[in-house]
Amino acid sequence: MKMEAIRLRSGVTSGEVARMLAQAPEGATLCLSPETYSFGMEGVFRGVFAPSNNDTGEKRVVFPLIGKKRLRIDGRGAVLSFTERLFPFILQDCEDVVLENFTIDFSFPRYAVAEVLRADAEGLTLRVDAARFPFRVENGGLAFQAGSEWRTTAKKKFFLAPLNGRGGFRYLAAGETADPLYNLAAPLLRTDASRTEDGAICLRYREGSSKADYEAGQRILVSHDENRENDLFFLERCRNVTIRNVRILRGAGMGMIGQLCHDLTFENIAIETEPTRDEPISITADAFHFLHCIGKLEIRGCTVRDTLDDAVNIHGIYTQVERVNGSGAVVRLGHQEQYGFNPYLPGDRVSILNGQGEGGRLTVRAAERSEDGKSIALTFEEDAREKLKPGDYLDNPDRMPEILLENNRFLNCPRVLLGSPRRTVVRGNELRLHGAVTVTGGVDYWFESGMARDVRIENNDLHTLPGRSHPSVRIETKGENRCHLFHQNIAIEHNRLFGFSDLLNAEAAENLRIAHNTSDAAPCELHLRGCRNVCIVD
């Protein structure tokens, strides 16, 4: 079949793009020009979506690809600039799609940089460059401009994070109408905001507020897009999608999110800041985040710099059993950012975690999400009462991918998190991380499942960042899985370590091989807990 080429003209609106995509026939190619396209609200597509670990609800999408097959978008060097709080790309129920050769940018930053002028028991005084980061103070609240909208702590939470390695991050709510924060690990600062005579921001603690441990002279990040309303790419129930030669310069939330997909490839993706802007952050959450995908998941030749959260996070989801009735059960999603997501499809073979390890399997016949998105009613092919009881957890390990991370550069990012029982290869990467390459899974705060069965971490350059103390590789379990042989068959070989005193911290793992790694620190230690059959060479 001949590919139909559709050219995207200069000055096209968001609504025109959506209509053009909706009408594009199977096998079409959408071609752009090597120029800057500016997209705002005019006619923008609106739809309700539930990306896990993000906010569920209405999204305003410039490039909605819904049910498209054999579609290609070739940017040919174009810059896609977004002037409002928009979701650039959403792909749902697509097959054989290629997105390539363009840059994504936003015309406004998704955070502000502030200098601490004063910090004491009464509050904080901050200096913010209003020309770079427009803000206003009114009615005791602090607001920052994001496109034509203003984001204020009177309605949404901000967070403050140190940029020079001192202190921990805090959430900020200014004004009397600040909403209570649910399930929040970080301390909450409740303040009243005002302007000083010289234009600085004065944040006075209200009664019952926690206190910040920042110091005068410290630079901190004020993120006003923490709620993850609009990320960059969201893929759901897609098959055989390739995204390559794409550069992302600014973004709120996550870069690439995929859930319930089959065969995804990401090649030569650059997530970084624009050097001429002197901005410290590229995106405010995970660069690559995937859950319950199957087939092959490959991330090759990518560069990720200066993110506020993980470079890579690949995992499933644990749900907790609330009640059991014959061949059915009701399970609850554990974290608010997972509400609305359903990790189960008919035919899935789910495993039971009961505090004693795996407690057998059940086959899903039907899975119906509740109206509020917090729970799922499951019907099984078998009588669930024989194996399942309230308080148990369910995992869906068969709906997980083979993973390849190869020849990437992840620089100044928190971690790489891997949680799949399929073959996982981390090879030939340069990793400069705040934390470790982590093989993980547990029923703790995030309820992110993972049960490694075949992992190779080999031929990587692993660098710790100044002032950090952690192992280069961590193998861990959390919650109900702890103290059981949870992970198996992990090889850590021929890696080069720089700045680490610990090569490995591992627990609940079996069949570990640690061989031919080199370190610039002596000695480089191993910490093992509850492990069995460990082979250490050279």
Short description:
The chain is mainly beta and 538 residues long. It has 1 helix and 49 strands.
Topology:
Elements: E1 5-7, H1 14-23, E2 29-31, E3 36-39, E4 45-49, E5 57-66, E6 69-82, E7 87-92, E8 95-106, E9 111-120, E10 123-128, E11 135-138, E12 141-146, E13 149-152, E14 158-162, E15 170-174, E16 188-195, E17 201-205, E18 219-223, E19 233-236, E20 239-248, E21 256-259, E22 262-271, E23 288-291, E24 294-300, E25 303-305, E26 312-317, E27 319-325, E28 328-333, E29 349-353, E30 358-369, E31 375-380, E32 393-395, E33 402-406, E34 409-413, E35 416-418, E36 424-427, E37 430-433, E38 437-439, E39 448-449, E40 455-458, E41 461-464, E42 473-475, E43 487-493, E44 496-498, E45 502-507, E46 509-515, E47 518-519, E48 525-529, E49 532-537
Parallel strand pairs: 1-2, 2-6, 3-6, 5-7, 6-8, 7-19, 8-20, 15-16, 19-21, 20-22, 21-23, 22-24, 22-25, 23-26, 24-33, 25-34, 26-35, 33-36, 34-37, 35-38, 36-40, 37-41, 38-42, 40-43, 41-44, 42-45, 43-46, 44-47, 45-48, 46-49
Antiparallel strand pairs: 4-5, 9-10, 9-18, 10-17, 11-12, 12-13, 14-15, 14-18, 16-17, 26-39, 27-28, 27-32, 28-31, 29-30, 29-32, 30-31
Segments where pLDDT lies below 50 for 5+ residues? Answer: none
* CATH hierarchy class name of the largest domain: Mainly Beta
Average pLDDT, rounded to a whole number, is 89
Overall morphology: globular
What is the correct CATH architecture of the largest domain? 3 Solenoid
Q: Tell me the major beta sheet.
A: 20 strands, parallel
Q: Helical element count?
A: 1
**Number of E-type strands:** 49
Strand content: over 45%
How many domains make up the 3D coordinates? Answer: 4
Q: What is the radius of gyration?
A: 24 Å
What is the helical fraction, as a range of percent?
under 10%
CATH topology of the largest domain: Pectate Lyase C-like
The secondary structure category is mainly beta
Between the first and last Cα atoms, what is the distance in angstroms? 57 Å
